[in-house]
Amino acid sequence: MTHQPTAPLEAYPVDVAFPDIRPYAAGNTGIPYLYTFDSGQPGPHVMVNALTHGNEVCGAIAVKALLDHGLRPRRGRLTLAFANVDAYHRFDPARPDASRFVDQDFNRVWTAKVLDDTSLDSSELRRARAMRPVIDTVDLLLDLHSMHEKSRPLIVSGPLDKGIALSRALGAPADVIVDAGHPEGRRMRDYDGFGDAASPRNALLIECGQHWEPAAVTVAQDSSARFLLHAGIVDASDLPAGWLQPLPPAQRVVRVTEPVVATSMDFRFAGPYTGLETFTEAETVIGWRDGAPVVTPYPDCVLVMPSLRQLRPGVTVVRLGRLER
Prior knowledge:
Oligomer: single chain
CATH superfamily of the largest domain: Zn peptidases
Structural class: alpha/beta
Helix content: 10-25%
Order of helices and strands: EEHEHHHEEHEEHEEEEEEE
Number of helices: 6
Largest sheet: 11 strands, mixed
Strand order of the largest sheet: 1-3-2-4-7-5-6-8-14-13-10
């Protein structure tokens, strides 16, 4: 059976303004674009990170707003960071997906082996190595992201029970994705103690919505507020007004079982999927890879962040998840 290609990819409008972050270039730690504030009182070191990918602006808007608001922790320490600023400064509304990174994905380099290997070099590795000494001291990390496609926001909890528990403590977004990451390399949220079940350190990654929709900014603000309040380093009165949104009625957990990785440029989806589509029947065709059908391996299979916008050999184009009852 021949397969039909999917429709041309929709060009999403850029409906949010990209803020000028150059006034924050100095930082206050000796690390550009990174600020740490110490209350002098006991408490955890909490980090809110933006711009892991250069075109994911909602986190940058939230972090800039916290800096402009003058937020300071009452207890513990607070770090606010803009990560891949080189990619961010290359953003072009005419080619909005091109500034995801400069040389390689910043969110695939987070192993000691890669970071310590001085034979490896890229814009992203240099930035990760600069930020690493601070991240090594962080107890709780919130990494703010957004998505290629217009989909409901979700929490990426990582594979461990402690990540699921932290997701439930936040209570939002409603969809919690339990996964071990990507074949291409380790994410920041899985780095070192964040990805160690025996460590008290913990991290969450929030996919706030489509990259350039205003609703993603609202999710980034709400998630940041909830994370900081849960960590106990600020009081509600310290936060910008209007950031907290109503909680969803319930959360659901989707456990990723496998990635679907492109082996060439010949990959097509069977429909205009954007994420969290659920297929009740096993063996449902969801696409074709090099002409061969890709099917759901079990009932109630959920598509996690399907997208062909970064299609190339070796890239995960979708992950398949089992809906947990």
